Design the sequence.
């Protein structure tokens, strides 16, 4: 699911629940459904990747992103694609 789809889903959920919050107030990590303690591996990082997403994921999970090729077991893989 891409970031736009996550934001739209969060917006629909907040409207259904009668909440008056906007998706801008919900962090990207939460919109992706991440929870504290999850380990996230990031693959495909490049210097044009969105740092806001990385920071949000680390804030929500409370763990640093693991580099591509890690030998650790992970809960989530964040695949980065070049900005085109």
Sequence:
């Amino acid at each position: 699911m891409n970031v736009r789809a996550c934001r739209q889903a969060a917006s629909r959920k907040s409207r259904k629940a009668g909440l008056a919050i906007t998706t801008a107030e919900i962090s990207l990590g939460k919109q992706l459904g991440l929870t504290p303690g999850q380990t996230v591996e990031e693959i495909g990082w490049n210097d044009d990747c969105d740092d806001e997403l990385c920071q949000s994921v680390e804030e929500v999970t409370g763990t640093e992103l693991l580099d591509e090729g890690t030998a650790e077991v992970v809960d989530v893989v964040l695949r980065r694609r070049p900005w085109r």
Notes: The chain has one domain: 3-79. DSSP finds three helices and two strands in the chain.
